[in-house]
Amino acid sequence: MVLYFHLMEMFDDNYFMKQALVEAQKAYEAEEVPVGAVVVIDNKIIARAHNLTECLNDVTAHAEMQAITSASHFLNGKYLSDCSLYVTLEPCVMCIGAIYWSQIGKIVFGAEDKKRGFQQAQLEAHPKATVYGGIMAEDATALLRDFFRNKRT
Fold it and tell me: What global pTM score does this model have?
């Protein structure tokens, strides 16, 4: 019984956000804006993604969009209502639209995006979804800040 509770504590929002940060680091190393995402169902990661906009020359290739597509293929269905999305940066308007239509049940993001985030646009996720922000925000913000500082020098 103790082992079961220990495992449940291991798979918390911080654990999955750390996994999204691993993806963000991959984006950073590929000279993409360092945003990473994972999709989880029943404490199992079914999709991992990071920004690919530069690599694919595609403005829609955000981490969230890549993760949603991958999770949908994994589950062989377009609705992800039993899934949780962990993303290192607050989703933009485009991504919150895809999140809405895929009906993801839980959205957890790290850093806020005060310029382009969905909250700034006064949009909401699907009515049945829960949204949590600020999880490991300092780590996500530091990675973004470092990336853009290096781009300016």
Answer: 0.93
